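Quick one: structure for this chain?
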Amino acid sequence: MAAKFSKQKESIPNFEFDDTCQFESLVPLLLKARTELAELKGYTSLFQEREALLNPLYLNDASKGLSAEGVENNHEAAFENQLYSDGEQSEPYIGLLRIRDGLLMEGINALQFNDSLMSIGSVLNGGEKALGFRKRDFSLKKSLPGQLSMGVPSSEIEEALSNVQGFLSKSKSDIDPLIKACVVHFNLEHIQPFSQYNSRMAKIYFNKLLVSMGLLKYPVLTLGEFVRSTSENFVKVYKEVTHNSDWCPYLKFMLLSVASAARKQRQLLEKTLVLHRETQRRMISKCEGAYSPELLDLIFIMPVLSPLRLSARLDIHYTTSTRYLRKLMEEGILINRQSGKYQLYINRNFIQLLGV
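Got it. Here's what it folds into:
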């Protein structure tokens, strides 16, 4: 099942699959990955509010990704920055929030490949304007063990992306959707169509594609941690495609990544639901007058919260929101700290759970 590369332009794949890779060798991994995705998809239905599910998970994953890149940041500060206006937010957290916004964006049909890239790119660019294709040639060298060069010549970008769209819309129906998604993910990383945000684009688009294909209910899959922990193997399998036109090692790697990430995300959701229910029990029994389902959800949606933001979200008076948060602090559900002019109330139990 290796994909042949165009003899005229070796950097542009034409997605002609042959029998070099025996599909049978992928079946066990494919079944495992599809099973884990199905269980993750089913488990997300237990979360009634979509934002409560996605917001903390993706800020958390993006924060871990920045740490792996050597960018100094911490989970708590990532959640704190979402309280602030655009002018008050700081790097690198502006980028984290834009990744979150890209994942939360609705109305994306990822099967419409180029339109999806433009929509996601606009969000990653701060909503000011769409990202244009890069005009300069470059060879991006990823900071992974063993040099890994990415990026087709700028003159080939549009043709390469057109090939990807053709693969999505016209390729044989007997190719499993998850295999398709993995191939497309490789090509976004390989083509590097934009001058910036390519990896973030690939991350968001891969999730949106799994949703459009019906493999996920929400875009909650986080491959980054697995890929980072096995980066040396990633370099090897990537080069098998680019040097030998052999997709099998890469597809095996991706199927393992998907299965591992889906399982870990489901386990995190299970722990989150347990903590959510325990917090609900404590609020009902000890915080008379302060409990509401909306407040309970909000301290998970925004585990770093201020009275001002709470009053805006629940449409209550500032003094009432302060009283609610202080009551939760007194009962040990939240902790309090000062940050500049803001009084912050922090669901540190949840933040610590996310960091596990």
